Every structure is written in C-alpha cells, then in structure tokens.
Amino acid sequence: MHTLQEIQAIEQKCLLQTYARYPLLIERGKGVYVYDSGGKKYLDLVGGLGVNALGHAHPRIVKVIRDQAAKAIHLSNLYYNEYQGQLAAKLCQLSGLDRAFFSNSGTEAMEGALKLARAAGHKTSGDAKCKVVALAGSFHGRTFGALSMTGQDKYRSGFEPMLGGVEFVSLNDIAGLRAAVDEDTCAIVVEPIQGEGGVRECSREFLQAAREAADQHQAALIFDEIQCGLGRTGALFAFQHFGVTPDIVAIAKPLAGGIPLGAFLVREKFASALSTGKHGTTFGGGPLACRTALEYLAVIEEEKLLERVRAVGAYLNRELKALAAKSKIAREVRGIGMMQAMELAVPARAIVGRAMEEGVLINSTQDTVLRFLPPFILEEKHVDKGIRVLRRVLKEAAKN
Ligand code: PLP
After folding, report:
1. pTM listed for this prediction
2. Separation of 371 CA from ligand 1 center, angstroms?
3. HSE, side-chain direction, 13 A CA sphere, residue 357
C-alpha cells in the first residue's frame, strides 16, 4: 500500500485540484468507525457526506453486493432486470408518488426533474412555461441545469451564462415566493432542509405556500431530498416530516448503500411529459444498484432505524446545544435527526482538522458551520465520544 505522502504526490501531479482534502488516508470502515492506513480509528460523523447511512461494511449490504456482483453488475436499459421495477414500486409505495426514474447521482436526478418539469410545462401551456423559482442558499449540483437552480454565487461564478429563467427567493420568504411564481413558472425547486447551505430548514408555512403557488399556476413542486431524504430526518422522506407532498422528489446519497444511484419520483399528472426516448442513461437503474437499494430500504425498516434516527438525533441535538451554551465561539445549533449543525463565530475548517487529529470526523460548510451527517446506526455512547472531543477542541480554539 502507498503512504499518504505518495498518494498526495500522485494526486498533486495527476488529478484536477478541485478538492481541499484533509491529510487522511482512509483504508476501511466498520460500523460508525473508519480506520486510516496506520490502523488509527476515527468516529465517522460525516458518513461519506450523507451516503453511509448504514455505516461501513453493513453485513447485509456486503452480502447482497457480493451475491449480485457474481450474477450481473450492469445490464442495459434496453432490457428488463429483476430489480429496477421492484425498487420503483417500493419507492412509490413509501412516498405515495407514482413513478420513478433512476440516475447515477443526485445532480442527474435534479437534471431529470428539471427536464420533466419543462416538458410538462410546454405540454400544458406552450414554450413560455419554462421559468423556475428556486431558493437563495440552495445547492442542487454542478451540471448546468442543477447549477442554474443553485442559489450560491460561489458555485456559479466563472461558469456563466447559466440557464435562463431562474428566479431566486430568500428562504422562508412567503411573500417573495408568491410574487415570483406566475403562469410561466414550470417548477418551484426547494430543499426542505438546505444541506450545503448550512442546515437551514424551510418552515412548514413556506412549504405549504409553495404547494399552493404550484397548484395555482400548474407548476411542478420539486423537493430536492438528496441530502435530507431517505430517513435522515427520522421520516423516510423529509416531506413526510413537514406534511407537504411535492409533485417530484429527488433522492440519491444513501439510496444504494454507497453504490452510486439517484432517482426522481413523480406524480402521474406530470410523469407522462417524458415519453419513450425523451430521457435516459447508460448506468442508472442497474441490477446491482437497485437490488442493493431494496436491501437498504429493508434494513431501515427491519432494524427500525427511523426510530433510532429520531431518538439519537434528538440526543445529539441536545448535547450539541448544551456544549454550545458553554462555548465562547459557538453561536447556534440547528437540525433534525441525523442532520445537525453548529454555527461558529470562527472559521470551522481548523476545528474540523483538530477533531480529526483527535479521532472524530466532522464536516464544515459555509466557512463557519460544523455539519454532522452521521450514520443512522449511531448510538448515544458514540455521541458522547464526539461531544467530548469537540468540547476539548472548541475550548482550545476559544483560547487562541
Ligand atoms: N442536491 C443536494 C441537496 C445535495 O446535497 C447534493 C450533494 O451534496 C446534490 C444535490 C448533488 O448530488 P451528487 O453529488 O450526488 O450529484
């Protein structure tokens, strides 16, 4: 095996330098822990940025991948496979929506959702019905469609022009939303909880207003649940937590236990806008990914992990709040379930680096926000360990 320094040298020479990596070479993971190349153990509160909801090397996920890989990893969408339809049926049953399309990533799920909303708009009201209303502070991905709906300059600048016809409103600004939506709007796009934006929740009233505006103007209400969905809030879909049902929901991250898989689910009313040949992908919906996703959903149900997310997530939130109350550099704690954040008065990256040295992986976003996206199998004793380390690191940072 190569050393961290050797890997860094190869990457420095041969990779596009698009990631600000921490100096850590992870070799393997088990449950809520990962291990570096020297065998040192780290509590993983990043969870692969929301992908590893079942932790690492979950025995049922490993078993199903092994079994399916020996049978068929990929089959073309020219033919049927055993699992794509079954997974669509399961997701429709769980969400109450009617049809699914499978992609390879969250970004592609959003691209597909946007194409569908445009096609549906054109079908009902002609080509002028193509405008999108999205939110400031949002993140939907890095391709041009997804980026055009992303309300943060840092991701967009240098790549203009974006797709036309996207108007941004502030988070929870109901009057602004109502003013922005009109008969030319084909989609309202919302993350019920903004993830990259710093774990910021939409209010129930705002989501209800978005539902009403979409109904009034025959626009598709699209929820991007790529980060907050599939159990992270303690409900399988975040929209179930908020009590507002979208026309389209995009999901990805943990769906296939770490195998790349995204999807959008859509109501019948909009679904027929994409007919044969109008959308597609080579990889999306392959048998390995879809069978593993069925296993993911089964594990969530059979191991009663939504209850765990609610209970341990609430404990994590309480412990973070207690810690913040005593820290000179913590400003606010916010979040639901296994999606929590602590806003700091100082840059977060150095804190993340120090916590890593002390054996706890945390992520930062928006410069001053510590973000926690732990696996759903987290227990209170793991929270206690994370808090102990964070307390020490915050204390140290407050002194400097
Ligand atoms: N939408 C949201 C809310 C996300 O958090 C992300 C990724 O972090 C994306 C879209 C993009 O997903 P992916 O990186 O799988 O393309």
Report:
1. 0.98
2. 15
3. 7
